[in-house]
Amino acid sequence: MGTRLHLAAALHATGEEAFTARHWAELVREAELGTLDFVTFGDSLGGQPGLDAVLTAARIAPLTTRVGLVPTAVVTHTEPFHLSKAIATLDYVSGGRAGVQLAVAPDPADARHFGRRSVGAEPELWEEAADYAEVLRRLWDSWEDDAEIRDEATGRFIDREKLHYIDFEGRWFKVRGPSITPRPPQGHPLIAASHPLGDIVFADEVSATDRLVFRDVDVSTPIEQLVAWHSEGFAGFRLHGDLQRITRELVPELRRSGLFRTEYEHRTLRGHLGLARPANQFA
């Protein structure tokens, strides 16, 4: 894992400011000035009114250059084909900085918004989310990297031999594919969740996993505690609270201790986190 830790910030906005692109852009730019690995955008199907997290991230992407963008998507009542396309698009417009945090919605009140299904217990919803994540990865791989030809002379846009049906059939989904969006710049945008189904797991304990485990902490948390948790195996921390306290107080202190970067060394979110671009499972 190395000695340096990783930092993310959970972005929150309330009131009228939550509905302005300028405010979200200011938050993300502040995080980028602090060279944070990524920011997350919250979303839900109930509770406080707010903007769609994936669309907000896509709007902000052209206004930033390095920080990773990880919107939340509630997968219980959405289709993986549509989300795979949306996150692949975010990866393109951000130049390889996209991720997605998968969340479930066990509240029956959320289900009533849609009127399509009743929901089971939360453990069952996370089983469904694990299948959802698998479908996302397969759809992102359904185009090989060099599937696009774009040969004007022959009129051929794609090499059909390099497009693949994913033919996924599980308890909750039956998806044939392929995607209608070429393979994203990162191959697979990062998948995060509070469950060990993604590349990043938000958890309070480190377990035996090859995932990057981030702990959710408040920004008044002492640096000594962060260092101790990091030595226990936490890859990094998602910080909640005043963003400027993170970027202008905590980050400089961690830099002085040699525990955090002084500048970005990579352009993609996978690069920031030291993760290789995955091979295409169909190639």
Task: Give, in order, the helices and strands.
Answer: EHEHEHEHHEEEEEEEHEHH
Q: What is the subunit organization of this protein?
A: single chain
Largest sheet: 8 strands, parallel, barrel
The residue fraction in helices comes out at: 25-40%
Write down how many β-strands occur, each being a DSSP E stretch of 2 or more residues: 12
Share of residues in strands: 15-25%
| Uncertain parts | none
Q: Note the overall shape.
A: globular
The average pLDDT value, as a whole number, equals 93
In angstroms, what separates the terminal alpha carbons? 29 Å
Helix segment tally: 8
Strand order of the largest sheet: 1-2-3-4-9-10-11-12
Task: Give your account of this protein's structure.
This protein has 283 residues and is α/β, with parallel strands linked by helices. Helix content is 32%, strand content 18%. It has eight helices and twelve strands. The protein has an eight-stranded parallel β-barrel with strand order 1-2-3-4-9-10-11-12, surrounded by four helices. Helix 1 (21-33) runs parallel beside helix 7 (243-256), helix 2 (53-60) packs parallel to helix 3 (80-93) and helix 3 crosses helix 5. The radius of gyration is 19 Å and the shape is globular. It starts with 5 loop residues before the first strand and ends in an 11-residue tail after the last helix.
